[in-house]
Design a protein that fits this description.
Layout: H1 21-24, H2 31-37, E1 40-42, E2 53-58, E3 64-68, E4 73-77, E5 87-92, E6 100-104, E7 107-111, E8 116-120, E9 130-135, E10 147-149, E11 158-162, E12 178-181, E13 187-191, E14 197-202, E15 208-212, E16 221-225, H3 259-262, E17 274-276, E18 285-290, E19 304-308, E20 313-322, E21 325-334, E22 341-346, E23 352-357, E24 371-376, E25 386-392, E26 395-400, H4 406-409, E27 416-422, E28 432-437, E29 440-445, E30 451-456, E31 464-468, E32 484-488
Antiparallel strand pairs: 1-24, 2-3, 3-4, 4-5, 6-7, 7-8, 8-9, 10-11, 11-12, 12-13, 14-15, 15-16, 16-17, 18-19, 19-20, 20-21, 21-32, 22-23, 23-24, 25-26, 26-30, 27-28, 27-31, 29-30, 31-32
Length: 495
């Protein structure tokens, strides 16, 4: 088997024939600079392995497990070596589009369109021989009714987000809902209002979230809190409330409105915690994972890393609880992936595994490879980046990965902040509307230069606050690797 280490560059990523740049969106244009800090390494796939990666898991012995679109599960030894020297072993077959894997107590839990399955190797020969359905207590009839799931939570539950029928309606039981599956196979409805989720997972505080795709009732992709009893925005799934004991159907939201306005009418409505401006920050966001590598992946511990299928990029996000409501920010991270990203996973060495496939006949993808497994390593060099943005009573605290130039940081004109929101309606997606320019009254750098308190004249409730910090320089004179960030203001702190 031939193994080689390949650094993917921006130039290597031409658009597929027939696709124009404006159809996929402008790239960030920073791939060459990103490679200095986070090089991309190919994990070779033999021609004999029909690999369309969908879900990842790390086994107790350190091997990488991959679930595929065609329903296979492979165990890979050597994927984390430098250079990778992978050995592929087929563990299980016969499932249906595996986009989520989770290992617990000597068995693999696989989530597909129609069920959650516990898969085990009872005789110890390395090949699965027992398939136990934990639950299939929801409807499934067609190819848009995806099922994405979390890892096991501390109680051993799997959280599953169920896509709508045809991405628009809910013709089958619990389509458009998130449900919880207990270790003994009981299915518990959690919340309604999803459209076409693409990943489920926890933040650093253990709250569960799902990624939502832009579309009807969703102006852009977003990270949504799976709040028990909540309504997450799309009313097509209201018809299944009679099958959710103890949960009351919300009043229907008005169309052609705004989410922050409808929240005052619909008490169950949970606003997106993080909104990703369309194309600027993803177009079809997929699986995500929390970075808890203990610093092995650089300065972004406890942040969420997300893949995007269409734009073949990786982004990151931070969340915080304000007045009992989750909100936060998103940031560019790494472009130049080789294919459509379906999922990501952190290795024991602190590397970020990313993989997926292309289906250009259905959905256009910037990356040109038909399928790929790749690895993003941290070089050990810390880039000058916006590390995190947190909201305060009268402004934002911006934390950087390196000390900033104190004179530039103290100048209010160094911060360009615009705001906008989306139309909350039954139409597909939304333009950016209700634009404003935020007025920065003063900026106060910390003594160590690693953060700046940026005071605003006012916030815009319900708006994305779009930061352009291209004027910022580090203390050593370097520009930011990525000068953009986007904070979703659902709540303004009371104190």
């Amino acid at each position: 088997m031939v193994s080689r280490l390949t650094i993917i560059t921006f130039a290597a990523l031409a658009l597929s024939p027939g696709l124009r740049a404006e159809e996929l969106g402008e790239m960030w244009g920073t791939a060459a600079a990103e490679a200095k800090y986070y090089p991309i390494v190919n994990v070779p796939i033999p021609s004999t392995v029909p690999m369309l990666p969908g879900g990842f898991e790390i086994l107790p012995d350190g091997r990488l497990a991959v679930g595929t679109r065609r329903g296979d599960i492979y165990f890979i030894k050597g994927a984390f070596d430098s250079p990778p020297q992978p050995e592929y072993h087929l563990f299980a077959s016969g499932q249906d589009e595996i986009f989520s894997l989770a290992w617990r107590d000597g068995a693999m839990t696989s989530t597909s369109f129609g069920e959650v399955t516990r898969i085990s190797d009872a005789d110890g020969d390395g090949v699965a021989d027992r398939y136990d359905t934990l639950t299939n207590n929801w409807g499934y009839a067609e190819g848009h009714e995806f099922g994405f799931a979390s890892k096991h939570d501390p109680e051993g539950n799997i959280w599953v987000a169920l896509g709508l029928s045809g991405s628009y309606e809910s013709h089958n039981l619990f389509r458009g809902w998130a449900v919880k599956v207990t270790p003994d196979g009981k299915m518990i409805p959690v919340c309604s209002g999803l459209r076409s989720p693409g990943g489920v997972g926890a933040n650093a505080q253990g709250a569960m979230f799902a990624i939502e795709s832009q579309g009807p009732w969703n102006g852009c992709c977003s990270l949504k809190h799976l709040k028990p009893g909540g309504f997450l925005g799309h009313p097509a799934s209201f018809n299944w409330y009679p099958f959710a004991p103890g949960m009351n159907e919300p009043v229907k939201p008005n169309t052609e409105s705004r989410i922050h306005i409808e929240r005052k009418r619909v008490k169950e409505l949970v606003p997106p915690a993080v909104r990703f401006p369309y194309i600027k920050m993803g177009r079809s966001i997929s699986g995500f994972r929390l970075n808890q590598t203990g610093g092995k992946f650089g300065p972004f511990e406890n942040q969420i890393f997300l893949g995007d299928y269409t734009l073949s990029v990786i982004m990151r996000a931070t969340t915080e609880l304000i007045n009992g409501v989750w909100q936060g920010a998103c940031y560019p991270f790494r472009e130049g992936l080789a294919t459509g990203i379906m999922n990501v996973e952190f290795s024991p060495k602190g590397q970020l595994i990313a993989g997926g496939f292309t289906t250009n006949a259905q959905w256009p993808v910037r990356g040109t490879e038909p399928f790929a497994i790749q690895r993003i390593d941290w070089s050990g060099v810390t880039p000058f980046e916006i590390q995190e943005i947190n909201i305060k009573k009268d402004g934002f605290l911006i934390t950087f990965t390196q000390p900033v130039d104190p004179q530039i940081a103290a100048n209010a004109d160094s911060y360009a902040i615009t705001t906008y929101t989306h139309i909350y309606h039954a139409g597909y997606g939304s333009p950016e509307v209700d634009q404003t320019t935020a007025h920065v009254t003063r900026a106060e750098p910390a003594a160590n230069g690693l953060s700046v308190m940026v005071h605003l004249e006012k916030f815009e409730e319900g708006h994305i606050h779009d930061f352009d910090l291209s004027k910022m320089k580090s203390k050593s004179g370097d520009p930011l690797l990525h000068a953009k960030a986007y904070y979703t203001v659902n709540e303004i702190p009371h104190k």
